Amino acid sequence: MRIKTTISSSLLAAAALALVPHAASAWSPKLEVSETTWVQLGYLHQFWYQSVDDGAASGDDRSNEFFTRRNRVMLLGQATDSIWFFLNYDAASGSGAGARQDPVLTDAMIDFRINPAFNVVVGRQLVPFSIDNNTSAVTLTGIDYPTRALANLPTNPSGAFWRDDGIVVRGLLGDGMFDYRVGYFQGVRDGATNSEAEGRFTGMVMVNLASPQGGWFFNQNSLGALDVLSFGVGYDQMSRSDTDDHKAFSVFFTAEKTLGAGHLSANAAYYDWEGVGGPTNAFWNGGSTSVLALAFQPSGSKWQPVLRWQNQDPDDGEKLDTIGIGLGYYISGHRANIKAEYSIDDQFIGGSKKDAFRIQTQLFF
Q: What range does the domain containing 259 cover?
């Protein structure tokens, strides 16, 4: 059967690429105690220029901001035959507004690899809700995550975006055709909304008809290294004993295919939200967000044009459709590149929709 053969032949390559948020060659040399006890160091720097219509303090002028979007020091290692770990500290302002610069413990995971069908990960990690929020920041298709579509996903109080502290069970079944990830997390633990200390349940299941990606992070932009055809669903419920629960549902799709003229990447997702934030939030009573992203890298070229649409449609607020027109120049793959995007109707300022322009320089080692 062709599908089964394709999946079997791609398991090893996919695992190597998806184990960590980038190709292994980008890490430092291993510091080895033995073949199964070692550690590697990684570093990611993403530096931004951002200009938003009427975004300056005057309210009538374009903003002009330089800031560090991400500044991460990472540690990857193996302790025994079956125990791996990943540590990630980020010290970045995150936006042109400045603010947080202190290091944030973004990821701190211990992975017990019992077999490909059953692995247990404990610690601070991305909640398994969708491919979008579980994709590595190193291998994004656009200049950044689809933040308009994912804005409603709760994050850790420390600023570790879309992460939570807890336990995840994950694995690949059917020779890699089926991917499941289910977790139970800390959730919100403030006395005002959750005095009974109820937790958070998040999970996703996915069908892979080409290369599976069974590691911690997904790669939505392999630059020709993978052929991918996957789709799935996810669910997130953060219980709050003293008010309405946060509930979210996702349907997503990702594909990559090398064609005669180059490599095509396509990603799409639909999210349904309820109980977001508090009663004054536009999504408290419900709403949806969506994203569709297309990218194409011609054969032999270092250029990759990107087109992305994001939608926000809250039950109690105004709809926003954002169109991003982007271009990436890959100096050395994901190790060193420059990306730019012009975002039409990027955000609301003073009740009006405003455009934005951004440039990112990425260095990964």
A: 2-36+124-364
